[in-house]
Design brief:
The protein is an alpha/beta fold. It folds into two domains: 240 residues, Aspartate Aminotransferase, domain 2 (3-Layer(aba) Sandwich), CATH 3.40.640.10; 128 residues, Aspartate Aminotransferase, domain 1. Helix content is 42%, strand content 15%. Helix 7 links the parallel strand 9 and strand 10. The longest helix has 38 residues.
């Protein structure tokens, strides 16, 4: 049985090595980050904060976490960072624990409009037993109706105003929302899970300078580290910072995956050196992919706004709830292109949506450029519009990917393979 597990693990790596990973929530590790994640730290504990532990044997890890925090403060230009949380969702759970009590009101983006499940009653909001109120939505702009959102905040007077999405094409106009939130005594939380690397690279928006009090995020999407989460704040208030720290430990984590914290620290060092270039190239590739898909006949969302300013491209393949997104995702995977079906405005059935959410951060990470996005779009066209046999397209997909096997934007040697 163990051998079957190892064999399936190897097969999964081969699947991604040969194919095009285009799921917007994924990325790959640099060799140096892999080295940190693959270390003895995977089985160790370090409850508490650096230099203030409940266990012995943590001196070396204190150095690691302290360096990680210092680099994160520099990357995000923030006085407070916690890099302990084990995912973006755990970061959200911890933040809501710190900022709200059961029965309090919260405003957020509806999952039907692209909000993350942790913003919903089914996720962290429900776990904390908060009363959810969702913003009115402008489908053409793929963002909240700002005037409507401000009116909702004024009416509800929530404890927390949560901004952020799982489908994130454009920066959210944050200043007016934040001002209204602060006027009614609310704390503004910006969920940057998908766009954390773009924010750090200076190519998306700067939430902490635009009114957010807290920013949560994932360390493994556009920020190319190991799976994990972060909590960042613009507040200098020591009591506020302590509430956030305590909400992570002991609030939501005991041991917090020390090997992943070490991986985050290495990824932060690499991002300081290469992150701006990586972030810019992601956005350039996403815009190129969207333009080529549109040119080849696909319905790409938000065309009037230039399609995207993030790593994501959103395509519509049929009518609401007709399952056309699911069908498209399966045909593409048969051709070696790994995507995810996604609900679009109007969809109500998560397992039968009409859309695809595409991400280019992994393709960019292995060195693909806008001309490669044209080839990718052509493969989409051949499979989904021309009804070509996916097995034939797969050979061209494999050929394209065979030329892009090394991790870029990192400290590692160029001969270190991405999917080893």
């Amino acid at each position: 049985m163990a051998q079957k597990v190892l064999s399936a693990t190897k097969d999964s790596g081969e699947h991604y090595r040969q194919g095009l990973g285009m799921i917007a929530s994924e990325n790959i590790l640099s060799p140096m980050v892999k080295q940190a994640v693959n270390s003895d730290l995977h089985g160790r504990y370090a409850e508490g904060l650096p230099f203030n532990r409940y266990y012995q044997g943590c001196d070396d890890f204190d150095t690691i976490e302290d360096l990680g925090i210092s680099m994160a403060k520099k990357v995000f230009n923030a006085p407070f960072v916690n890099i302990q949380s084990t995912s973006g969702t755990v970061s959200n759970i911890a933040t809501l624990k710190a900022l709200a009590k059961p029965g309090d009101d919260i405003t957020a983006v509806s999952t039907a409009d692209g909000g993350h499940i942790s913003h919903a009653r089914m996720g962290a909001v429900g776990l904390r037993d908060l009363n959810l109120h969702t913003y009115p939505w402008v489908e053409e702009r793929m963002e909240p109706d700002i005037d409507g959102a401000c009116a909702l905040i004024q009416d509800v007077k929530p404890k927390v105003v949560l901004i952020g999405q799982s489908v994130y094409l454009f920066p959210t106009p944050l200043e007016d929302i934040a001002q209204t939130a602060h006027d009614v005594g609310a704390t503004v939380v910006y969920d940057a899970a998908h766009v954390l690397g773009l924010i750090a690279g200076g190519v998306f928006q700067d939430p902490l300078r635009e009114g957010a009090d807290v920013m949560t995020g994932s360390s493994h999407k556009t920020f190319p580290g190991p799976q994990g989460g972060v909590i960042i704040s613009s507040s200098e208030d020591a009591r506020f910072q302590k509430r956030l720290n305590n909400a992570v430990f002991p609030g939501t984590c005991s041991s917090y995956h020390l090997h992943h914290v070490a991986g985050k620290a290495v990824a932060l060092a690499e991002f300081l050196a290469h992150g701006s270039s990586y972030a810019q190239d992601i956005v350039t590739n996403a815009q190129a992919l969207a333009q080529y898909l549109d040119k080849f006949g696909f319905e790409v969302m938000a065309k009037e706004r230039g399609f995207t300013q993030s790593h994501q491209v959103l395509t519509k393949h049929g009518e609401p709830d007709d399952g056309s997104g699911k069908i498209a995702a399966k045909l593409l995977e048969d051709a070696g292109i790994i995507t995810n079906m996604n609900m679009l405005p109007g969809d109500t059935k998560a397992m039968h949506p009409s859309g695809l959410r595409l991400g280019v951060q992994e393709l960019t990470r292995v060195g693909m450029k806008p001309n490669d996005m044209k080839t990718v779009a052509e493969c989409f066209q051949r499979v989904l519009l021309d009804d070509e046999d996916p097995s034939l397209v797969k050979q061209d997909v494999y050929d394209l990917k065979s030329r892009h096997q090394s991790v870029q934007y990192c400290f590692s040697h160029t001969d270190m393979r991405a999917y080893s």
